[in-house]
Design brief:
Elements: H1 2-5, H2 10-17, H3 21-32, H4 53-63, H5 69-79, H6 89-103, E1 120-126, E2 133-134, E3 137-138, E4 142-148, E5 154-159, H7 165-179, E6 185-188, E7 195-196, E8 201-202, H8 204-212, E9 216-219, H9 229-249, E10 253-254, H10 257-270, H11 274-282, H12 285-292
Parallel strand pairs: 1-6, 2-10, 6-9
Antiparallel strand pairs: 1-4, 2-3, 4-5, 7-8
């Protein structure tokens, strides 16, 4: 560039600089272009919150970090009705979001669980959302669900009574019989049917059940329901599906418990989409786990 500024031709300047004429032309052209800074360094308008952000709103957020932008706008409109309208809502929401990210309370970090073939099976009880009758008589009941973490295969059993060990054992054994084997690990939440929470030990009956099927019993940490999310989420989707199928059926009365159980089995199976059904078939525990990890799945021997 210095030789060109002194009046030398493109060819002479390139020769003196030790570059090709083409490179010299490209260097000269790029040097003449203005710097394109894509990030704007100035405000396009005055800050509408300048008068109240640091003096009032920050103090409110520091005292109650859960306050939202909408609530702060309500506060401003109550105290300064002539100065703040709905047009600043998005500005408030962005400002609150930024403050919460930089100065708000620490957030719990949750890592996505990586399912392994035949590693985990989950058990949980849930209350159905829709009342059901058996021959026109109210039928109070629970639903027990067992779900394999990797394939998503599940079994749902109607439970008459509460979350007892008998209900857990019956539902679990029915599921293992249906799938034809057992996972390495069986996980529950803090079910009193499986665990003595006062002494923080597994009950003798449940320990023997898991030992019989060569499963290691585990549970999620207290208050950490997301650790049982494989079956918790499935409970929600199952109940929504049941509610829709009962509406489609036109009534909620069944001839008997066996008839209702057959309905549950059909709905829990049909809730799997065609795409997931093909995936599930390719991941079916009995065929896949035996070929990949023979000790990880075993035939169920029910007594």
């Amino acid at each position: 560039m210095q030789h060109r500024q002194n009046g030398a031709s493109q060819e002479v300047a390139a020769a003196k600089a030790g570059v090709s004429v083409r490179s010299g032309r490209r260097i000269e052209t790029s040097a003449q272009k203005p710097c394109l800074d894509t990030e704007r360094q100035w405000r396009t308008r005055e800050d509408p919150l300048e008068a109240v952000w640091e003096t009032e709103l920050l103090h409110l957020l520091e005292n109650e970090p859960k306050l939202t932008g909408t609530t702060l706008l309500d506060y401003l409109q109550e105290h300064y009705p002539e100065h703040y309208d709905q047009t600043i809502l998005r500005t408030l929401q962005r400002r609150v979001k930024l403050w919460r990210a930089l100065h708000g309370p620490e957030r719990e970090v949750i890592f996505r669980q990586q399912a392994v073939v035949a590693q985990q099976g989950f058990s949980d009880f849930t209350h159905p959302d829709n009342p059901v009758t058996i021959q026109s008589k109210t039928f109070p009941h629970l639903l027990y669900q067992f779900r394999l973490a990797y394939s998503g295969w599940r079994s749902v059993t109607v439970v008459q009574g509460g979350e007892s060990y008998a209900a857990l054992a019956a539902g679990l054994q029915r599921a293992l019989q249906q799938v034809g084997g057992s996972p390495i690990e069986h996980r529950t939440d803090s079910l009193s049917a499986a665990r003595n929470n006062r002494q923080n030990v597994w009950t003798e009956a449940y320990s023997e059940l898991c030992q019989h099927y060569r499963m290691t019993p585990t549970r999620n940490n207290l208050g950490q329901s997301h650790e049982n999310g494989v079956v918790e989420c499935a409970n929600g989707s199952l109940k929504k599906r049941l509610a829709q199928q009962l509406l489609l059926r036109g009534h909620s009365d069944f001839d008997g418990v066996a008839h209702y159980q057959a309905f549950i089995d059909r709905v829990s199976t049909s809730s799997i989409s065609a795409t997931d059904r093909a995936r599930l078939k390719s991941r079916r525990p009995c065929s896949l786990c035996r070929s990949l990890r023979r000790p990880s799945i075993r035939p169920s021997t029910l007594r």
